[in-house]
Structures are given as C-alpha cells and as structure tokens.
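Note to self: keep these together.
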Amino acid sequence: MKKIFSILLIAMIGASVFAAKFKNGQTVYVSKNGTITETEKSSSKTVSDISKGDKGIVIESTSKRVNVKFADLGVSGWIDSSDLSKKKVLKESVTTSVDNIALAGKGKASATVKEEKKEEEKKAETAEVKAETVSDKAEVPAEKAAN
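Structure:
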C-alpha cells in the first residue's frame, strides 16, 4: 500500500512540474520583443514580430511553448512561455533626462526651468544695456569738458 501511495505521489508531483504554465483562454502579455512561429518548434517559420506589451489569448500550451492568438495584430503563433507574462506589461518604457529626475522633488518640469533661464538671460541682457547706456552718458560730459 505504501508503494502505491508513493508512486501516485511521485506521479502527481511530476505532473505538476511538467504541467503547462498557461491555461487555454487565459489573457497573456508579451514581456519582451520577439517573434512568433508557425509551429511549436522554435526553429519553424516566423509568422510575425511581436512587441513588449502585446496582448494575446492562449490557444494551447506545453511546458515550454505557448500558442497565442494576438487579436489586435490579427495573427497567432507559438512563443516561448518565458517570453509571456500573466500580468499586464507596459508597451513603452518611460525615459527622462537627468534634469527632470533632479527636479522631480522640486516640483518643476524642464520646460519651466528653461523658461526661467530665458527670463534670467533677458534680465542680464537688459542690465548690460542699461550699464552701457549709463557709461555712455558718463563719457559724454568728459568729452565736452575736454573741448
């Protein structure tokens, strides 16, 4: 009796290890850019390119490969199960500049900073023009005094 129980236990554990990771009808998302193929073999003909974040429905799955229908793309094909996620994946990664990261805590966007820099430059130019005008006026009497 113990032998039968042990064999059944090993069989159940083995079946769960090799069971498909994804279930038919399940919504999945592509976790990295890649391709889908016509058959389960990864060496078979490429059907289409797919992108990170593309949404599909599982048609069939094995322990390593999954047949997925991508309704939005109008294609279906096989993909490695490691390239799929059950959780929604963002299509595009967000990029930003170092300036925006540094200013994030200050509550300022880079556009605001650029506007502030332009205003400061205008003020500096205005101050320079006023200083030149004052110095020109100061030089005129000295020239008249020389004559």
